[in-house]
Amino acid sequence: MRPAYSLSTDQQIVLRDAVATAKARPGLAGQIDALYAEVQQAIDARKPRCDVSGKCCQFEKFGHLLFVTTLELAAFDLRRPANDQPDGEGCRYQIGGLCTAHAVRPFGCRVFFCDPTAEGWQQEQYEHFHTRLKRLHEELGVPYLYVEWRQGLSVLDSPESATA
Ligand code: SF4
């Protein structure tokens, strides 16, 4: 059975078109990076512990999923690292336990920490910056979509995306 977060063919087409629209917006990557820099400042102020176990990138094993917005997917595609390792489980940018997309990783990767002391502020910061991301879609006139990471990547990989 297909997972509930799977995109239908129609949804894939909508996402592909929305990502193409976003990629055409001048300065998109810079705007996303500016927001990510603010996320980092908020995290630095709280100093959560990260043991670099890489477990959180093994989605099924860890028991959570990563979701991304249209603009993030588009900004990622503009600077997508060549090295990935699709294996069906987990994130394909985790190789040898390390993130090979660290500099351009999505917001959800930046704000998540398994450190129990992060629980108090994590959700609050997630909502705050997610609202900012949503607003940026409105400002840039890009349809806001929120999709599971691997589903989004498979749309970027589709031959139709290459010609969009
Ligand atoms: S992009 Fe990097 S940090 Fe995010 S899930 Fe993939 S390997 Fe982990």
Describe the structure.
It is a single chain. With 164 residues, the chain is mostly helical. The protein has one domain (9-163). 52% of the residues lie in helices and 6% in strands. It contains eight helices and four strands. It has helices spanning 9-23, 28-44, 59-62, 70-78, 107-111, 119-140, 149-157, 159-163; strands spanning 67-69, 94-95, 98-99, 146-148. The strands form two sheets. It has a two-stranded antiparallel sheet. The radius of gyration is 16 Å and the shape is globular. The protein starts with 8 loop residues before the first helix and ends with a helix. Iron/sulfur cluster binds at residues 57, 66, 91, 93-94, 99, 101, 105, 109.
